[in-house]
Design brief:
The complex is a heterodimer of chains A (95) and B (491).
Chain A (H helix, E strand, L loop, with lengths): L4 H10 L9 H15 L34 H5 L5 E2 L2 E2 L7
Chain B lengths: L1 H5 L2 H9 L5 H14 L6 E4 L1 H16 L10 E5 L26 H8 L3 E6 L22 H4 L13 H9 L4 E6 L5 H7 L2 E4 L19 E6 L2 H11 L29 E5 L9 H16 L3 E5 L7 H16 L17 H12 L2 H14 L4 H22 L5 E5 L15 H5 L6 H6 L3 E8 L5 E8 L4 H15 L10
Parallel strand pairs in B: 2-3, 2-4, 7-8, 7-9
Antiparallel strand pairs in B: 1-3, 4-6, 5-6, 5-10, 9-11, 10-11
The chains are: A mainly alpha (95), B alpha/beta (491).
Chain lengths: 95, 491
């Protein structure tokens, strides 16, 4: 499997990372080098092996569905690049 | 005051309890050293006022006879632990203006025990790198550049490069780091100090800027194994705020350092003998084996057949988790925002300006391996191979108690070297990544100097939650190799 310019463009769009048109080819080459190296995993027989997402082996704990935190909008908004009263502000989305 | 900088953490504890030194004297000595060595770039921010204030509080407690375990101990904090009211950048432009409103669990516990914060240590951007050269705030100089009279400035390793260089150079007596694939152990090896990655789940990840959540683990960087044991005790512990935190009790790790390894079974994995490993690293490994055998350990050859697949597995899983974790940086709630009139443009421009090249590369790889049509072939495949790698370790740990390997395949290299080839850079973590994938505790101990006069490390790996055996063996190695840090605080 190898990435062409179109695929790099698609991935960059999914990742919301802009790549300049002139950089597409270089990026594709770099990513392909890494992917080719990764593809040695195809040599490994993984038939019947369960995918492992976590090493802990313990079930994720559940807590009671209670409010245990909050009530400090100023702290929450302290790092906001832009705010309107107690809300995060963003460029207009709907006309 | 240079003698203060030469004392390790345990020495300082004694000097404080004997009233030979005050917390303030120690802290001022370190702040002065940091100021005089600003060219090393170990710190992204220095919290001078806070440090003095914390030291004064330490001294008051000591005077009242209520001294805490770490009172008067000045440490560096890797700049990905959120510190309330203190800038936390993760080495990225994206977070260059971020001031957390809360404290990470690990640092909160260190302050609870009286430790003093000197500042926030430089690191590879979002902990992605092995040389500290991906930091938005510039590279860090390894203090061994001067010690080994190197013509070129040397890297401290990464990603906890600022932490390791500060501890080695006498700019902090100890520091916190985080290790995802080797980010504590490899810089410890490059800087001639001790670095420990505990078992996954031993330290809370709450308040740590996330890179790859199934791998990230906090740990100490110190000058001795005893210091690592002392600091880890404070950092570790169950935290309900991290759902993967382990609900197990924290032993007094220092008690494990009794030097008695008679009958302890040490495995030497044959797959770690790689063609092209410098003979000086092979020699150090053999020296380590001899020291442990002489101390009464039983050495055996073991096999971890999937070792060679660990790095490629890691470079699917870690970028996949990173692409998901770093999706939060969208310019809306915190961090950098590029001013644009359209929302989509704002996301894209923000992420383009905020992230450096290596971070973008990993986000793109991660996004690709998780995307529809490729998920099974890459991501699920890697998770299956990860299971086999873990199984390898489970198998050998039926017959041995710890493993002994080199920490890194090379000594510290020059700043700029390996930067043009990502895969070459990734190979730095070849001996550390397998244990990360398996979640096991591991320590790097400085062992010897290379022909160029640069430190080389040995790695001890243990079973899940058996940090005690890892520290015990590390302590025996440390006594056996007789490695000393030269001229601490005299760069």
């Amino acid at each position: 499997m190898s990435l062409d310019k179109t695929m790099v463009q698609r991935v960059s769009q999914l990742a919301r990372i802009e790549i300049e048109e002139t950089q597409l080819e270089t990026t594709a080459r770099e990513l392909n080098n890494i992917l080719e190296w990764i593809e040695q995993l195809n040599e490994v027989d993984t038939e019947g092996v369960e995918p492992m997402a976590s090493v802990t082996g313990h079930e994720l704990p559940k807590r009671d569905d209670d409010v245990t935190d909050g009530g400090y909008p100023d702290k929450v908004l302290k790092n906001a690049p832009d705010r309107e009263s107690d809300f995060f502000a963003v460029p207009k989305v709907v006309e | 005051m240079s003698n203060i900088l030469e004392l390790n953490l345990a020495d300082l504890q004694k000097a404080i309890s004997d009233k030979h030194l005050s917390a303030k004297e120690i802290t001022e000595a370190y702040l002065q050293a940091i100021e005089q060595n600003s060219q090393s770039n170990c710190f992204i921010s220095i919290t001078e006022e806070k440090a003095i204030q914390m030291a004064e509080e330490s001294d008051k407690r000591i005077e009242r006879g209520e001294g805490l375990a770490l009172d008067g101990i000045p440490i560096g904090v890797k700049d990905l632990f959120c510190t309330s009211g203190v800038s936390t950048t993760a080495g990225s432009n994206m977070l260059s203006n971020f001031v957390p409103q809360y404290e990470s669990t690990v640092t909160e516990q260190l302050w609870r025990d009286g430790a003093i914060m000197l500042g926030k240590c430089n690191m590879d951007e979002f902990a992605m790198g092995s040389a500290n050269t991906t930091s938005y705030f510039g590279s860090v100089e390894n203090p061994w550049t001067t010690r080994a009279k190197s013509e070129k400035k040397l890297v401290p390793g990464g990603s906890s490069g600022g932490s390791a260089a500060a501890v080695s150079g006498g700019l902090a007596v100890a520091a916190t780091g985080s290790d995802t694939g080797g980010s504590i152990r490899q810089p410890a090896s490059f800087c001639g100090i001790v670095g420990m990655k505990p078992t996954y789940g031993r330290c809370s990840r709450w308040g740590m800027v996330a890179f790859a959540s199934s791998l990230d683990q906090a740990g100490p960087l110190t000058r001795t194994v005893r210091d690592a044991a002392i600091l880890l005790k404070s950092m570790a512990g169950y935290d309900p705020k991290d759902s993967t935190s382990a609900n197990v009790s924290v032993p007094n790790f220092e008690l494990a350092l009794n030097g008695d390894i008679r009958g302890l079974r040490v495995g030497v994995p044959r797959e770690y003998k790689r063609e092209g490993t410098p003979p000086e690293i092979e020699n150090l490994w053999q020296k380590g084996i001899d020291i442990l055998r002489k101390a009464g350990a039983v050495i055996s050859d073991v096999s971890l057949p999937h070792t060679k697949y660990a790095l490629p597995t890691y470079y699917i899983i870690a970028p996949a988790e990173a692409s998901s974790n770093l999706a939060r940086y969208d310019g809306v709630r915190y961090g950098l925002r590029a001013q644009q009139t359209e929302l989509q443009d704002m996301y894209q421009r923000t992420r383009d300006e905020g992230f450096g090249d290596e971070v973008k590369r990993r986000i793109l790889i991660g996004t690709y391996v998780l995307s529809a049509g490729y998920y099974d072939a890459y991501y699920l495949k890697a998770q299956r191979v990860r299971a086999l790698i873990k199984q390898d370790f489970d198998n050998v740990f039926e017959n041995v108690d710890v493993l002994l390997t080199p920490t890194a395949p090379s000594e510290a290299f020059a700043i700029g070297e390996n930067d043009d080839d990502p895969i070459k850079m990734y190979l730095n973590d070849i001996f550390t990544v397998p244990t990360s994938l398996a979640g096991l505790p591991a320590i790097s101990i400085p062992g010897s100097l290379s022909n160029k006069g640069l430190p080389l490390g040995l790695q001890v790996v243990g079973k899940m939650f058996d940090e005690e055996s890892v520290l015990k063996v590390g302590d025996v190695l440390e006594s056996g190799v007789e490695f000393t840090l030269q001229e601490v605080g005299k760069q």
